């Protein structure tokens, strides 16, 4: 056990010795480190002293160098300013000739840079040497440059501006106004050049004379484009003949006096002249219309009725085209003219063309009134067609012209209002004319056929269907019942009221006209023909019938009843003949008394005389409608033949006379043949 203790002690002592040695090693290292740190501190202190001495020696040099650099910059600036001043003195001489020569085609930027140099020189001398010769020279050169720019501006507009092709304008008028019909008034590079010139003139020269050049040039071209369109439409035959209301098989072809629908095909009104009423474009009276493009011919319009006033279709076409051209001109102006001048420039640009447009509308309105004075109510269709297009385009014109001085949109609205007044008055006058058309024998058809006023009135109503919205809106303010209607559209009810009023006064007039005939049968045939024509026209034109039924649901039944009454009245013409055919129920004796024989002779004699007289008179009567004519003939046959057959069977074989052929002149088939020849002048 002692050995183990000794062994452990020895281990502890050896370990302690090793630790002492390690500790001594560490102390030696720390001493070396402290010595090194002290040496480094000494070195750094020495370096710091040297840097301070270096800074003290360099600082004066730095300050001197900075001062010299500032002096050098001042000299450079002074030299530049002196160079500019010297240059200002030579600018007028250097650029005078190039500026006098004017801009080079396609290189406006170089010219504008020359103008900028002159402008700066002018500004310098105006501030630093106001009374100098250099200022006067600069101002003169600058003025010449402005004149050259304005001249170039005008030349570019005149050389590159062209009227819009007629074909393109017809494409504009043929579709919706929202369709994109592109109009390139000027090539893109030309627009860029004009834009640069306009911006420079406004921003650098404070000059607005180019605005007058611009709007006069564009206004003149717009006027020429519209004139070209009008002339092309008129020369192209776009004033279409109106529809023929009655076919040849319905009414004999004749032209009685007092025709209220004079067709253009037979009578062309005098062409309106714009010279007296319309001011010339650009203040010049020498405004010759441009030639019509030979490569494009305006097609003749078919299937539409533009009324009897010449120029109607041309004006309707120009309504939409003028609006779209104004829109395109505004877009072009916005691309060229600085924004602060848009309103005044567009105002001036559209002023003269708008004067032409309004004046043409006024002339047409006056023409409609003049034609109506001749009782040619086909002119109403002209006015209504124009009014329809004006009403459709008025909101767009108002939006386009919003904010412009002088209220140009109000002028379009006033023109629309004038046509509204004219059209409403003409509708009222048409109804009055139908009501009071004079009852003259000279105006009456001798054969009792359909009267011209009947066919014309029905044609008028049929044409009104195409414009029912326009007409209905015109009539609605004067129809309180239609305004209060809850069962149908007020506009349709107002139109239905008007249609019924027209037909009512027409019916009354026809009944009065029939009294011009002395023969009651001809009176009845006349009324029957006209009432049947009205009824047949209504059944064919379902649109007119539907409008009439808005206020008179039984209108068709009413005319059926009138036709039925006239048929019954017509049969009275046979009263005397029928009385002669009446026989008693008692069978005759083979041996007849003298009085009986005389009675039978009288029956045949009266019937033969009546049949001959009625046939002689009524074969000249006309019933144009084949179905009506055949039905009347058949009614005559069904009315007469049974009684005549009975009379013939009863007495035909009895010896009531020694000369039977004298009294029995017709067999049953002969009478039927005669009755089937009624209303046939060739029979």
Describe the structure.
Helices cover 70% and strands 0% of the residues. It contains 22 helices and no strands. With 683 residues, the protein is an all-alpha fold. α1 (2-101) packs across α3 and α20 packs antiparallel against α22 (668-675). The protein is elongated, with a radius of gyration of 53 Å. The relative contact order is 0.05.
Summarize the structure.
By secondary structure, the protein is mostly helical. It is 70% helix and 0% strand.
Topology:
Blueprint: H1 2-101, H2 108-128, H3 133-160, H4 166-174, H5 188-203, H6 209-235, H7 312-336, H8 342-373, H9 379-400, H10 408-436, H11 452-465, H12 468-475, H13 480-483, H14 490-514, H15 520-540, H16 542-548, H17 555-571, H18 575-581, H19 594-618, H20 626-651, H21 660-663, H22 668-675
**Beta-strand percent range:** under 5%
Overall mean confidence score, pLDDT: 83
How many runs of DSSP E, i.e. beta strands?
0
Q: Which structural class is indicated by helix and strand composition?
A: mainly alpha
Helical fraction equals 55-70%
Q: Helical segment tally? A: 22
**Main β-sheet: number of strands, strand sense, barrel status?**
none
Distance from N terminus to C terminus (CA atoms, Å) equals: 178 Å
Low-confidence blocks of residues: 175-179, 237-259, 261-304
Shape field: elongated
Write down the secondary-structure element order.
HHHHHHHHHHHHHHHHHHHHHH
């Amino acid at each position: 056990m002692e050995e183990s203790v000794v062994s452990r002690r020895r281990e502890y002592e050896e370990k302690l010795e090793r630790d002492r040695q390690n500790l001594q090693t560490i102390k030696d290292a720390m001493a070396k480190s402290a010595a090194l740190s002290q040496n480094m501190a000494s070195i750094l202190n020495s370096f710091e002293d040297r840097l301070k001495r270096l800074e003290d020696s360099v600082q004066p040099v730095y300050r001197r160098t900075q001062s010299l650099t500032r002096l050098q910059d001042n000299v450079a600036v002074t030299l530049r300013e002196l160079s500019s001043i010297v240059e200002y003195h030579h600018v007028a001489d250097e650029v005078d000739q190039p500026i006098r020569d004017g801009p080079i085609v396609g290189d406006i930027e170089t010219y504008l840079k020359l103008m900028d140099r002159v402008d700066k020189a002018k500004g310098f001398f105006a501030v630093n040497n106001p009374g100098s010769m250099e200022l006067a020279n600069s101002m003169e050169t600058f003025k010449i440059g402005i004149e050259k720019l304005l001249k170039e501006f005008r030349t570019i507009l005149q050389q590159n501006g062209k009227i819009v092709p007629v074909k393109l304008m017809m494409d504009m008028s043929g579709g919706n106004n929202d369709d994109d019909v592109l109009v390139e008034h000027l090539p893109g590079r030309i627009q860029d050049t004009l834009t640069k010139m306009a911006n420079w003139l406004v921003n650098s020269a404070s000059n607005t004379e180019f605005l007058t050049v611009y709007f006069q040039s564009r206004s003149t071209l717009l006027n020429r484009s519209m004139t070209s369109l009008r002339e092309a439409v008129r020369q192209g035959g776009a004033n279409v003949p109106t529809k023929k209301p009655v076919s040849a098989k319905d009414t004999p072809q004749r032209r009685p006096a007092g025709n209220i629908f004079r067709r253009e095909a037979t009578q062309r009104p005098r062409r309106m002249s714009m010279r007296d009423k319309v001011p010339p474009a650009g203040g010049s009276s020498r405004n010759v219309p441009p030639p019509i493009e030979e490569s494009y011919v305006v097609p003749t319009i078919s299937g539409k009725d533009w009324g009897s006033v010449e120029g109607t279709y041309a004006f309707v076409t120009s309504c939409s085209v003028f609006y779209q051209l104004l829109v395109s001109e505004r877009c072009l102006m916005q691309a060229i003219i600085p924004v602060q001048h848009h309103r005044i420039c567009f105002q001036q640009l559209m002023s003269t063309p708008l004067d032409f447009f309004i004046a043409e509308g006024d002339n047409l309105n006056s023409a409609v009134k003049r034609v109506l004075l001749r009782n040619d109510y086909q002119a109403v269709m002209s006015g209504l067609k124009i009014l329809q297009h004006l009403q459709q385009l008025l909101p767009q014109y108002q939006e386009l012209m919003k904010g412009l001085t002088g209220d140009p949109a109000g002028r379009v609205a006033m023109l629309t209002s004038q046509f509204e007044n004219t059209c409403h008055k003409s509708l009222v006058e048409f109804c009055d004319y139908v009501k009071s058309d004079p009852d003259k024998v000279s105006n009456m058809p001798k054969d009792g056929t359909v009267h011209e006023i009947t066919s014309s009135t029905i044609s008028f109503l049929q044409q009104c269907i195409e414009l029912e919205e326009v007409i209905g809106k015109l009539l609605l303010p004067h129809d309180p019942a239609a305004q209060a209607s809850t069962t149908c559209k007020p506009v349709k009810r107002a139109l239905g009221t008007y249609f019924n009023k027209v037909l009512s006064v027409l019916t009354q007039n026809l009944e009065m006209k029939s009294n011009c005939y002395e023969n009651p049968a001809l009176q009845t045939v006349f009324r029957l023909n006209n009432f049947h024509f009205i009824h047949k026209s209504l059944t064919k034109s379902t649109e007119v019938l539907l409008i009439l039924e808005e206020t008179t649901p039984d209108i068709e039944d009413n005319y059926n009843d009138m036709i039925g009454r006239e048929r019954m009245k017509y049969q009275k013409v046979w009263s005397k003949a029928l009385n002669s055919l009446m026989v008693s129920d008692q069978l005759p004796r083979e041996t007849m008394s003298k009085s009986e024989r005389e009675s039978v002779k009288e029956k045949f004699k009266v019937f033969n005389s009546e049949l001959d007289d009625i046939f002689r008179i009524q074969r000249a009567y006309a019933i144009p409608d084949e179905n009506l004519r055949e039905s009347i003939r058949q009614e005559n046959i069904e009315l007469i033949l049974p009684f005549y057959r009975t009379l013939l069977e009863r007495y035909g074989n009895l010896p009531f006379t020694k000369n039977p052929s004298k009294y029995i002149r017709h067999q049953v088939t002969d009478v039927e043949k005669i009755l089937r020849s009624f209303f046939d002048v060739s029979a």
